[in-house]
Amino acid sequence: MNSEHSQQPQTTSPLSGSVMVIGGGISGMQSALDLANAGFKVYLVENSPAIGGKMAQLDKTFPTNDCSMCIVSPKLVEVGRHLNIELLTWSEVTGLTGEAGNFTATVSSHARYVDISKCTGCGACELACPVTQISYFPQEPVEGEKKKGGREKRIIRGPGAPLPQRLHPWTFEVAADKCSKCGNCFRACLHGAISWEKGGVASVIADKCTGCGACFTACPEKFSAVTIAEAPEIDKSLGAAIVARSAALKKEMAGRDERNCIRCGLCAMTCKKVMRIGALKMVTEGIEASLDTCQVCGACVSVCPVSFLAIDQVTNKTPQPLYNTFNEGLNLRHPVNILYPQAVPRVPVIDEVSCVHLNTGSCGICQSVCGPGAIDYGLKGSEREVRVGSIVFAPGFEVFDAKRRGEFGYGLYKNVVTSIEFERLLSASGPTSGTVQRPGDGKHPKKIAWIQCVGSRDHSCDRDYCSSVCCMYATKEAYIAREHDSAIEPTIFYIDMRSFGKNFDAYVERAKERNIRFVRAMVSRVFEDPQTGDLELRYVDDSGWRVTENFDMVVLSVGVQIAARTRDLATMLGIELDRYGFAVSQAFTPLASSRPGIYVGGVINGPKDIPETVIEASGAAQAASAGLALARGTEVTVEALPAERVPEAGEELRIGVFVCHCGTNIASVVDVAAVAEYARTLPGVVYAGHPLYTCSQDSQESIRAIISEHRLNRLVVAACSPSTHEPLFMSTLRQAGINKYFFDMANIRDQCSWVHPHDPQLATEKSRRLVRMAVANATQAEPLAELEFDVNPSLLVIGGGVAGMTAAVEAARQGFSVYLVERQPALGGQVVHLGRSWDGQDFSRYLLELQEQVENNDRIRVFLNSEVVEHSGFVGAFSTDIMTPTGALRTVAHGAIIVATGAEEARPDLHGLGTADHVMTQTDFEARLLGERRSVPGHVVMLQCAGSRATVVPATYSEPDTGTPCDTSATGGGAADHLPYCSRVCCNQAVKNALHLKEINPAARIDILYRDMRTYGLGELQYQKARRLGINFIRFDPHDNPPEIEVAERGIRIEIRDPSIGRKVSLAPDLLVLSTGMKPRDTEELASMLRVPRNGNGFFIEAHAKLRPVDLPSEGLFMAGTVHAPKDVSETIAQAQAAVARAAILLSKKNLRLSGVVSRVDPTHCAVCLTCVRACPYGVPFINAEHTAEINPALCQGCGICVAECPAKAITLGRYQDVNLKAKIRSYAQAMPEAITVEESHDG
């Protein structure tokens, strides 16, 4: 069998304990973290200047609407600061030799022209750079209009009217000891502000000086007698001051129609003193340009506040704007730029193509303003060789070039944008700070159309596959757009609504409730009204009518594709790709590439969403490390934390407060600066700041420095959710040598800016009070100790299907002992009922080989006909009782658990299923195709969504008025049988079985009745093949157009309206096959025992829908397979490997530390009333030998229920004692004395 199991390194050289991960998106970051945390050195190679990938560009994520940057930022920081992850950004792998276990990779790094070791990420260089557009750097003089003194010059006319005096917030002065008495400044000043007589020293008439800088520009470089007399606070450098003043003037001039020269002098001053070129000069007629001196850098154009200047005006050459690629070209950037505000590493790159200094030797302003001296124009690219044992290939994707679909006008009509561009428009850190505006004119659009399948499911551009994510991200964008502006009317034009993931259908239904309109139609063309910029869409609706409809803006839902450079890299690595550029893999080895030792994860393995990407990333990490288990820990660095400073008695409180802008997530509503200023007035606060992104890596480093500088001993952060970010800030505090529990957090995003978006004053005042309460709590904080204990390196796997067996085998390969528990008499699970995969691989053969691997592995102990009946302990030290077939209990000790109890095919009471021989499920039909080929039917009808995705109604019911029984929709079934969700696999299974039947009997007639064909990803290719082979697909609506099905002994009769021909058709098949969906097994008792939650459908709930799809909320527990949600066999195998990767992080450690937030009993106050024993949902409290309640801190979950229930107040919880709560309440009462009166208790 071609599997990861067969890819054991076959090398005589010692195994390397390092792994290379290629790609720094969410997939690469997850792989890197899982590997590094499990004891391997990681080299993370990313070809852009910073990690983050496409997820960093997104605004929100579905179906939770979490801020994408908020949830990915902690991972960015963790990767950036991890001791065992070496970031190789702005780099590429250019060579690979060796074999699995002992590769040598050649990595070439481009020159940043910035020394990473010196750069602080302050952004001064980017602020000072005045260049935002470029034409070219001429090697020869440019032809001009007239010559003076042998030099080519041009006069750009139009002096315009002078502005009022004090144009700038500075004036100039002349240093008498440096003045050359040349009079250049006198002749240059157009405002009569220079006093000079021939042969004398010049002086400035202050009350006439406008600050235009013409004198400054005219003064010979070698004398520099003219200097700024008054400078604004921002004037760290002249370049920065000019750029800032330019921005202020642009704002001031925005309402004027005047576009003539206002003689401000910024262009000339920039050209000479900043760029050090000197091609522009202020003269009476306007601006004189020296064409043979001009370097075509565009700096003058970028600072002109009235957009009077243009490069082509100066040089007859059309300029090329420097587009911000992170913002998808919606705004401009400088040649020196940081990729995005939260970038890791937050280090700029200088673009050697557009940088003036690198091309001409002039300018150099960025180097002059860099305090640490990090700018180094002499830096060169480098090349190094890295020895690694295996490679994870996760290069990500690019979006389809929408210009290839010219009928939609992208690139021609400014108000037609792609979906990723719209994400940047929605984003708080985007070019419009989250305001929905049309790029063409800045207007707020009312009607917005989304056109689906642009670059997906499209033969014309060789993108036949489905991109899997477009339907959901379009729904999300429409949903969020209405949250930004309730006046927006979104319309989504789609073919099939492929909301096949966990909770996706429910999300689409919520979108419909929010008046998001869904139109099933293919838009044929988009036209623009050149006068208004509005867009006309033409399409045929579901009734066959041709429709013309106008919209203000159009969003093209572009698909994903593999970049050409990725294909070249894969070829160099020896990885086989399919025609679309996706890695070729097998159904039972989904993460193994064609070259042993190289594993794939993410979109390179086929189109997928973020949770599937994260699962594959962890799975690929597991596969890459399994063969290197013996080298675990041989190349890692162990973190050495500074000694924790013990607070002295009576020590002065020194609290630092950081109020986060969160881009504009918070700052667009809350006056962050005002909140920080208020915090400075609170008792004990010695420092208060308001960083742009407090969670970014540079902010974490800055916080550590500020802790040291100001000798802080408490920390308060006002930002977003503590559930996602508190561990990050506590870790930073501990790295600074402070006990991490001297920390509190105010959630001013969720509780202020998000809930009061239309009332900034209220949101700001509420933020002040929350910060006040957090500071009050910090004053009462105490250091807490954490319990350290040894880890039991054994794993318990519950469930013996494909997920459970895969997890057991992979964990054993990692070197861990495994207990595998299965309640049935044999291993195999639901897959024993399946025939073959969509690519023709035999399930039975695969199962047999997998069972043999389990049974023949000495590290795996199998318990058949057994069940888990009791469970106790905590992460790293669990104890579980297993009931064996003999009735005996077997207690096993283990450090982690993987739940893989699976799901089963639903069998609803519907259309005679179970009673009529000619009605069966897809799994029954699959078995029949394998076993009874001679009796295959000639006409088969398959009914999709049978008992799934239906309204919850009884199978029959009585009308209130008439009492007449009424039938439900054809896909309904009884309430007990109802599955409200999509089961994900049904459409693909139906197409697979239909194709199989066609192989056996090419003359067979097959009709598939469907609502939406959800053959996502590469499954779309099978769907298209089925259509080509004559398999008939008839769409229906369960509410407006349900099929009428009559099942009787004499046969089956179906009537349905076929929308493709616009009339009803009658079908009389030999066999009715129901796609009934998948339902979870009964796990209520198990979930209660393990104390983990399930959703309303019975599936286990993950710790986080996007970024922790394998972890259960209880630490040390993981899940794999269909216990999580419906999925196919390949996806199940990948998740099983991912679960092992997550468990390996725990099991590979010698010891762990538990939280210090636990309950403790004061025995002197305990009344032995047993209230805590009864109240604790985890069963932790017990009565000890001294006849008082006792709580094992290792078992305590810190929920605080016992604290609240104890009538004698004998139990306290760290961080949540009475003194903490009362401090918060008092601080609030002091802010609102009329609101609350705090009752003093006996203990004060």
How much strand content do the residues show? 15-25%
Low-confidence stretches: 1-10, 138-151, 157-166, 231-236, 951-975, 1235-1244
Can you tell me the CATH architecture of the largest domain?
3-Layer(bba) Sandwich
Ends apart, CA distance between termini = 72 Å
InterPro entries: 4Fe4S_Fe-S-bd, 4Fe4S_Fe_S_CS, FAD/NAD-bd_sf, HdrA-like
Organism: Desulfoprunum benzoelyticum
Keywords: 4Fe-4S, FAD, Flavoprotein, Iron, Iron-sulfur, Metal-binding, Oxidoreductase
EC number: 1.8.98.1
Notes on the structure:
The protein is of the alpha/beta class and 1244 residues long. It folds into 7 domains: 4-110 and 382-396 and 563-631, FAD/NAD(P)-binding domain, CATH 3.50.50; 124-170 and 231-369, no CATH class; 400-560, FAD/NAD(P)-binding domain (3-Layer(bba) Sandwich); 655-779, Rossmann fold (3-Layer(aba) Sandwich); 792-833 and 841-902 and 1081-1152, FAD/NAD(P)-binding domain (3-Layer(bba) Sandwich); 905-1078, FAD/NAD(P)-binding domain (3-Layer(bba) Sandwich); 1159-1213, Alpha-Beta Plaits. Strands 5-2-1-21-32 form a 5-stranded parallel sheet, with helices on one face. A 5-stranded parallel sheet has the order 23-30-24-25-26. A 5-stranded parallel sheet has the order 40-39-38-44-57, with helices on one face. α17 (672-679) runs parallel beside α21 and α18 crosses α19 (722-735). Mean pLDDT is 87; it is low at 1-10, 138-151, 157-166, 231-236, 951-975 and 1235-1244.
